[in-house]
Structures are given as C-alpha cells and as structure tokens.
C-alpha cells in the first residue's frame, strides 16, 4: 500500500503548453517572414532596362499628365501609318515580327502603353481605356499623325476599338487581334485564362503580385497564353519577367485588375465604320475565339479570319499568316482620306 506522503504528483503542464502555444505560431511567423524575404523580387533598374530593351536610341514622348511613353517609329516614313497596341503585361516587342514583315510597305508605330514596358507607371495612374487612348494621342502628336490604321491585341484590341468609337475621323482602318471587350455568347463559359491572371482575381493574390514575381510563374503564364509553345524561349521569358518588374508596372497590373472595364461600351462597337479586320487564334485560352463572331456581327462590313492551331498571340505564333492577312486586307479595304492643304 502506498502512503499518500510517499506519492509525488507530476509537475504541472500548463506553463509548457502555454510556451508551445506561443512558440509554434511565432516559429511559423518567422518562417513565413523569411520565406517572403527570400522570394521577394524587387523592381528592375530603370536605366538598365532602357539600355537593354530600348537601346541607345530609345524614343519617349512626353504627355500632359506627366506620361513618358516609350515608342518605336519604324518602316517607310512615306507610307500609310499603322499604330499597334500590345496586350496586358506585354510590350511593344510583341509586334516586332510584323514590323519585319510589313515595314517595307507601311510606317509602323508601336508603343508601350501606360503601366507596361519601358513606359512604366505614370504619375496620374490612369490605366483605364481613357488613359491608354491618351497615350496613343501623345505618340501620334509627337509624330504628327492626325489619322492612321489602328490595331491591337487583347487589351490593346480593347483600347483600339474604343478609340475607333471615340475618334472615328482619325482611324482609317481597324485591326483586332484576339481583342478583348465583347460579352460572352449565350451558354458560354469564361475562358480558361492563365495562372497570372487567375491570381489577380483574389485580394491576397493582388497584394502578393506587387511583391513576389517568380520567373517560373511568368513562364507558366506565357505558356498558358499560347498554343505554339516553341515561341516561348528564354529571352522572351526574361523580357516579360524583367519588364513586368520595371518601376510602376506591377502596381499598374494590380490597379487594372480592379478597374471597371465598362462592359456596357460593347454595345457601341456597332458605331465603328472604319474597315475592320478581326483575326483570332482558334485555341485562344484568354479570350474565347467566338468573340470574333460577335465583333463581326456588330461591326458592319468587317472581315474575320480564324487561325487554326494558334493561341492568344497570332502576330508571334503565326507571323507569316498574320502579316499576309493584314497586307491583303489593307490592299483591299484601306482608303486614305484626301490630303489637306497643309500636307500637299
């Protein structure tokens, strides 16, 4: 029999439990903080990026709201002018395959829209359609262009048709490459999109997007946007990754993700009277290829072409077919306004 006096009670466990409750969350917090610091990707250096992706003759146009729009003016200066607008998180480099193929016949002006490429963030932080259209006006004024053929891919296509609605007297013809802005057709589901855009749908994802930008995520997003995987090479991935981190561009990406895209404006696309080419990749996973038919139904007299085996970037995935379609369309449909007294 054990005497009560000989029984030794175990030490109380509450202090140890309290320490665990404090130390475990603290350890996890420190681990998360260290992981965040290890993964955090800073902005790229402005001057280094201009030297690398703009070259010694990089051109910039100053706007009234403090914009500094990066642009290129290539091709034949005495030929009809094409102004081409890139898509979201891209840059003017996306048009270089068309510049090489069409520059012998046309003057081709490309620009980095606000919040993109070497333009970077703008002081007014206006990344709406109006802000993008203002950038077009800034470059056109710099080059003395009062009318031009206007084209755009994805978001740039959205800006292009919005511009054609607002400034019909300035747009000689309209080129829409997998353009955004049309509503889903009856019974349709949203397109698959890519991982980068899916992350931006969430508040925490948008917060992370301004701080952590892994190169692997950029590559995965690119590969999720195109059907022709061979075009996604190391220099392309580097360019998208480094220019996305150009000062102001990641903040602009987040602001655009929260922006009202004014879907009601789609009803006004029927006001466009400029000759219009609608060109889509059938395997586009960011904008349903059926949007081409919606544009075609709403823009009177428009031409439509769907490229099989092509994704969201036909000018890069199928540059020969895209350039040939543009050249044929412009030869058939482009009618320039008569020259005014000041241009004779």
What's the SSE blueprint?
Layout: H1 14-39, H2 46-53, E1 59-62, E2 68-75, E3 81-85, H3 96-102, E4 107-111, H4 129-143, E5 148-153, H5 155-166, E6 171-177, H6 195-199, H7 203-209, H8 215-223, H9 234-244, H10 249-257, E7 276-281, H11 291-298, E8 303-307, H12 314-317, H13 319-333
Parallel strand pairs: 3-4, 3-5, 5-6, 6-7, 7-8
Antiparallel strand pairs: 1-2, 2-4
Defining key terms:
alpha/beta; Rossmann fold; eight-stranded mixed β-sheet
CATH architecture of the domain at 58-192 and 263-335: 3-Layer(aba) Sandwich
The name of the CATH superfamily of the domain at 58-192 and 263-335 reads: Alpha/Beta hydrolase fold, catalytic domain
What gyration radius follows from the Cα positions, in whole Å?
Answer: 26 Å
**SSE string:** HHEEEHEHEHEHHHHHEHEHH
Number of strands: 8
Structural class: alpha/beta
Strand order of the largest sheet: 1-2-4-3-5-6-7-8
- Low-pLDDT segments, ≥5 res: 24-38
* CATH class bucket of the domain at 58-192 and 263-335: Alpha Beta
End-to-end gap: 121 Å
CATH topology of the domain at 58-192 and 263-335: Rossmann fold
Note the main sheet.
8 strands, mixed
Rounded mean pLDDT score: 89
Strand content of the residues, in percent? 5-15%
Bulk shape: globular
Helix content class? 25-40%
How many helices? 13
């Amino acid at each position: 029999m054990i005497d009560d006096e000989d029984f030794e009670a175990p030490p109380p466990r509450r202090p140890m439990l309290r320490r665990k409750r404090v130390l475990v969350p603290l350890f996890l917090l420190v681990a998360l903080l260290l992981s965040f610091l290890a993964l955090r990707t800073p902005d790229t250096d402005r001057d280094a990026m201009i030297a690398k992706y703009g070259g010694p003759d990089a051109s910039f146009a100053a706007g009234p709201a403090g914009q500094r729009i990066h642009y290129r003016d290539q091709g034949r200066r005495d030929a009809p002018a094409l102004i081409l607008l890139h898509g979201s998180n891209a840059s003017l480099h996306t048009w270089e395959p068309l510049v090489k193929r069409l520059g012998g016949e046309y003057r081709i002006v490309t620009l980095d829209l606000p919040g993109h490429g070497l333009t970077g963030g703008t002081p007014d932080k206006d990344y709406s359609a109006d802000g993008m259209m203002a950038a077009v006006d800034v470059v056109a004024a710099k080059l003395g262009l009062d009318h031009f053929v206007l084209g755009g891919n994805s978001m740039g296509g959205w800006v292009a048709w919005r511009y054609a609605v607002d400034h019909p007297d300035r747009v000689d013809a309209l080129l829409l490459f997998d353009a955004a802005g049309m509503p889903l057709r009856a019974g349709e589901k949203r397109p698959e999109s890519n991982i980068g855009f899916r992350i931006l749908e969430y508040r925490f994802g948008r917060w992370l997007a301004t701080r952590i930008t892994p190169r692997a995520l950029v590559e995965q997003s690119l590969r999720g946007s195109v059907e022709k995987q061979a075009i996604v090479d190391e220099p392309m991935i580097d360019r998208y990754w480094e220019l996305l981190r150009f000062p102001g561009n990641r903040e602009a990406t987040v602001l655009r993700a929260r922006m009202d895209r004014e879907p009601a404006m789609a009803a006004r696309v029927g006001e466009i009277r400029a000759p219009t080419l609608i060109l889509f990749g059938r395997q586009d996973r960011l904008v349903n290829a059926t949007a081409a038919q919606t544009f075609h139904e709403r823009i009177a007299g428009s031409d439509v072409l769907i490229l099989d085996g092509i994704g969201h970037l036909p000018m890069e995935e199928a540059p020969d077919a895209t350039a040939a379609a543009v050249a044929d369309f412009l030869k058939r449909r482009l009618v320039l306004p008569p020259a005014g007294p000041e241009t004779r």
